[in-house]
Amino acid sequence: MKRIVFPGSGTEDNQTPVQTPVQTPTQPPPTQRSPTPPPTHKDEPPQTPRPPATPKDETTQTAKPLTLASQQLSLTEIVVPSLKIGATTGTCGLFVGATAGIIRNAPVGFFSLFSAGQWFVLGSTFYGGRLSALQYFGPGEPVPRDKVKASAMGGAFAGFCSGWIRGPRNVIPGMICFSSLGAVGQALLNWRAARRERLAKEPQKETLLQWLNPIKPLSDEDYEKILEEKLLKVDVEIALIEDRIKELLDDDREKKAKAKAAAEAEAQRNQTPSSEQDGA
């Protein structure tokens, strides 16, 4: 070890104190010993280590596919179909406006464009509002009551937009008119769908017109039954014809056998007199 000199301790003033670190003997790190396996008997086979059990990951399980009615739609999935419906209704409005312009003897182009714009706004806003209302009622298949409410809301939104284009005074009448039309139209569609399902489950009854009509529609099953009956009749006729042919062949063979026997008997009769004459 070196001595440390401090200032004012009787040493030279120009000598700067130097402090050297004290070197301590370093010891090597202890080596880790591998654990010795437990003693095994000679008769027992060596045991292989089992891999650690991996926890089940719930995210890896395949989820059931979600339908359109069971998942929430994004803004794009609502706007794009609404624009497509609006384009379709706008095309119809274009022809309606052209027809109205021709009937009124007015500018056809102006009437066509104005009518196409109105129909585009009505179609796109109604479909978009109805689809948004259905998403508001929650996921799952909507019930008929929710469909009526959604159609009424879509009609009110369409009437609001159409009335705002025509003028602020037409907003409230437009909302009332189009919401009523949407609700009534959806109610009629629900009634028709329910009636169709009920008629599909019930057995069909013969009406007066069907009873008077000589031509009756045939289902696939009835047509198959008719064809099977015709095939059975054809098979029976073929069997009868084969039996008749067999009988005719048997009769022909019997006739030939009888004719042959008669000819042989006649030949024998002719031979016996000639032999007697030769003997005499």
UniProtKB/TrEMBL annotation:
Q: Biased composition, Low complexity: where in the chain? A: 15-25
| Bias type Polar residues, positions | 268-280
Organism expressing this protein natively: Dichotomopilus funicola
Domain of life from the UniProt record: Eukaryota
Q: Where is this region: Disordered?
A: 1-62, 256-280
Protein name as it appears in the record: Uncharacterized protein
Record field: compositional bias (Basic and acidic residues): 256-267
For bias type Pro residues, the affected ranges are: 26-39
